[in-house]
Amino acid sequence: MELQAQERGAAIYALLGQKSKRLGQSALYLAGGFPVALLWLVVWLPTVALGAATALIAIGLPVLAVAALFGIPFGVVERARLRLFTGRRVPTPHAPHAREDGGALVWAWRRIREPATWWELGYAAVHCAVAVADFALVAGSLLLSASLLTAPLLRGFTRDGELRVAVFAARTGLQALLLVPCGGVVLVVVFLVLTRYAEIRARIATSLLTKGRSVASPHQDGKIGQLVRSRARILGAFDAERRRIERDLHDGAQQRLTALIMTLGLARLELADSDPAARQLVDKAYQEARTTLNELRDLVHGIYPAALTDRGLPTALTALAEDCAVPTEAEIDLEGMRTRPPEAVEAATYFVACEALTNVVKHSGATEARLSLRRVGPHLVLEVYDNGVGGVDAEAGSGLLGLADRVAAFEGSVHVSSPDGGPTRLHVEIPCAS
């Protein structure tokens, strides 16, 4: 009973910690927009004023053009703030600019012609107007909550013993104490309002700061296409080589080891009673050969599982889930596919699932996991879920970077949702031509 009470207490404490952290993140995101807006206005307004004042002479138009580009650094800062708040990278809407595309003037001219530049400038102007209200909302709501929660203490600093906090008043010590639970209720309301409002603001900001996404220059577009195709070919050749090594080991060394074990088994029968010392050596050699064969089978399976080649992706993933150290449920639904996916796609999907389950076993502390694969339009969609501790950082070298690189070779996508405390969900989409 005492242990259960301790576990409940620990769970409540962890939940309060998560909610407090989320409230702090929401408050910092909303309030942090005010100094960003203030700093931007301090630089942008004088630039616009200078450009307007000198518009009739040659210097005015270039200055106004520079002012139009001020939305770009503002967008960079806002996307960084969004990443800190949401934990997800917000892609830049601008086309990449390589050195061979031209110098600073070419870069500026391209940026001015990009719709994304004007979306960022418009967002900056709207943000500056809203940032003041955001800061006032955060400061006012948190100050109100703190004042009510500390009402008995604050009343001691008043001259006449009467404390007024917004619509609340306390003339006696008892009334001041009664304001404390009111402060708790207000704090809960503040949490619900601020976190929800911050999430809505973040979604709107993400939408506006990615509008008008530009394509690369023709030179870059061709180069990027060549790199993608080259990477896919290299990955395909690598998987083909893995299959060849698997076949050579299976048909060569593995078969010879099996024959050796059978020969040693016959020798054991021949030496049953005649020579105990020799029988002991043969027994040892027999066991070593069996151990080596088992290790070789595991190695061959890790290089390229025969089930993937012979029976396809559903069977291989089901076997992978069954062999996982964490109890894993497999949900495979590829009905409607008339043919198997390309070998390279099957291999990429299998090894992504393998890496994901390895991460679950090593890092998650999960007690159960789920692996699902289905066909959605032109994509294979793989999801791996676990009920572990969460907190996975996709860019901290947790194995997800290599996983994302493998998927990117097929122009697929990887998304990870892993809040502190769990659960963790990995969502992978890989284009499938079948």
What does this structure look like?
This protein folds into three domains: 2-209, no CATH class; 218-304; 308-431, Heat Shock Protein 90 (2-Layer Sandwich), CATH 3.30.565. The protein is built from 13 helices and seven strands. 22% of the residues are buried. The chain has helices at residues 2-53, 60-68, 71-86, 104-113, 115-149, 151-155, 173-209, 218-270, 276-303, 306-311, 313-323, 343-364, 400-408, and strands spanning 163-165, 168-170, 328-333, 369-376, 379-386, 413-417, 424-431. The chain is flat, with a radius of gyration of 32 Å. By secondary structure, the protein is of the alpha+beta class. Helices cover 68% and strands 9% of the residues. The strands form two sheets. Strands 3-4-5-7-6 form a five-stranded mixed sheet, with helices on one face. Strands 1-2 form a two-stranded antiparallel ribbon.
